[in-house]
Specification:
Layout: H1 8-24, H2 36-89, E1 117-125, E2 128-134, E3 144-151, E4 158-163, E5 167-170, E6 178-187, E7 190-191, E8 198-201
Antiparallel strand pairs: 1-2, 2-5, 3-4, 3-6, 6-7, 6-8
């Protein structure tokens, strides 16, 4: 048994073949419920509607392309007037509000980051320790974090790693000694206050 097509083009092709077959072989198919003439009329109506849709789509594509060209011309013209106005009264002048444009904001200087928060030991193994912390909730955005360490009770603080994320895995740490670790957020403007301290014995 044949399968009725789903695609419009295949439906139209089958309708054409059916109308022609019913007409050419009326001796075989002498009383179809839908005569060949009716099928032909319905097919012609479909073809007319399809042509109208295609014409509308073509017109819409043409109109869209024309709209994009017009929009591009408008944007280009507006940008020229904005540049003229900024040169005329200054890019930071409030007079730019007169033409619906906003003055440029003066650049905000970068601030040093705040204090890295909640430093903790995430994992500890032989000669290895993983530290994690939270970024500062104030100050400028950190570009990196300095991880420092000192031997208890009063050893000097020394840099042991630099991290760009809020965690670091430290390997080959000295064993049998008690160390303090802390983290300092840094950026081009300076350093934040050191984080809380954690004590580790490996």
């Amino acid at each position: 048994m044949g399968r009725f097509p789903n695609a419009e083009s295949e439906v139209a092709t089958l309708a054409t073949e059916m109308a022609a077959g019913l007409t050419d072989h009326a001796d075989v198919f002498d009383a179809p419920p839908i005569p060949a003439e009716t099928l032909g009329t319905l097919l012609a109506s479909y073809n007319q509607s399809r042509t109208a849709v295609l014409d509308t789509q073509t017109a819409a594509q043409t109109a869209t392309a024309s709209k994009e060209v017009s929009l591009g011309q408008l944007v280009g013209a507006m940008k020229k007037d904005i540049r003229y106005a900024e040169n005329k009264v200054g890019a930071e002048s409030e007079q730019l509000y007169l033409i619906g444009w906003s003055p440029r904001r003066a650049p905000t200087p970068l601030a040093a980051p705040g204090q890295a928060r909640v430093l903790a030991v995430a994992r500890q193994e032989e000669s290895c320790v993983d530290l994690s912390w939270k970024s500062p909730d104030d100050g400028g955005r950190p570009s990196a974090y300095r991880v420092v360490r000192r031997e208890r009770p009063e050893g000097p603080w020394q840099d042991v790693a630099t991290a760009v994320e809020t965690q670091v895995d430290l390997i080959d740490q000295p064993r049998g000694k008690e160390f303090e670790y802390r983290v300092v957020a840094v950026n081009k403007a300076g350093e934040g206050e050191p984080s809380n301290t954690v004590v580790v014995v490996l």
